[in-house]
Inverse folding.
């Protein structure tokens, strides 16, 4: 369930995170707010008005917590909702392992499965932390300083919004990103198994070690993947 802290839209408070939430909800319901970037510009306000026009006689372009527009926008049902996309909404870090696996590119799925099996056989307790994640979640990570980029291989999607992540973050359930992961040899083992599957491993990146991260193609292909995602 999405949360709105303050008003969004025409003359609204327009907090970054609220705007991101509204933009991604509008998008999931088939409205085009422009780039999902946390900035409430004319495209976002126009999309709010269009959405309001389906149930208000005088759309004002403003969404307030607890009021009619927000209740409609944050509800998952309704005729304007694309059922296929609703199943992919919400916090993807909380999805089941099966769902995270299903959110990966078809070429990445078998490779990640083999990595998980190999690591388990070596006595680790591997799990996927992130498969796909939405651009809205990516931007939150970026604004929080937890990611260096506004678009990553985790955000890859088909033009209709179906997840097709080119990356996965794999951690040991006992350690996560804590020092135990290195002490136990988990990161090193993950890097070895990733290479066995011909994947790029973030632990090799000298400027920003991304220990848990494996990806299907080299960084040089990010622009292509972004374009194919329609983002
Ligand atoms: Zn990652």
């Amino acid at each position: 369930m999405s949360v709105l802290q303050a008003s969004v839209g025409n003359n609204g408070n327009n907090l970054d995170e609220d705007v991101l939430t509204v933009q991604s909800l509008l998008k999931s319901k088939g409205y085009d707010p422009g780039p999902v970037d946390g900035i409430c510009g004319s495209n976002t306000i126009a999309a709010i008005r269009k959405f309001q026009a389906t149930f208000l006689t005088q759309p004002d372009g403003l969404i307030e917590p607890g009021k009619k527009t927000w209740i409609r926008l944050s509800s998952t049902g309704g005729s304007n909702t694309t059922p296929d996309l609703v199943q992919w909404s919400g916090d993807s870090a909380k999805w089941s392992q099966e769902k995270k696996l299903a959110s990966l590119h078809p070429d990445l799925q078998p490779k990640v499965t083999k990595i998980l099996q190999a690591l388990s056989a070596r006595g680790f307790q591997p799990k996927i932390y992130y498969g796909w994640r939405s651009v809205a979640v990516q931007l939150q990570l970026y604004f929080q300083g937890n990611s260096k980029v506004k678009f990553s291989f985790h955000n890859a999607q088909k033009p209709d919004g179906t997840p097709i992540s080119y990356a996965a973050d794999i951690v040991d359930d006992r350690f996560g990103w804590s020092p135990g992961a290195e002490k136990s040899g988990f990161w090193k083992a993950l890097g070895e198994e990733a290479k066995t599957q011909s994947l790029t491993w973030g632990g090799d990146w000298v400027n920003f070690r991304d220990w848990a991260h494996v990806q299907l193609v080299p960084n040089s292909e990010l622009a292509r993947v972004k374009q194919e995602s329609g983002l």
User: Anything to note?
Assistant: The mean pLDDT is 91.
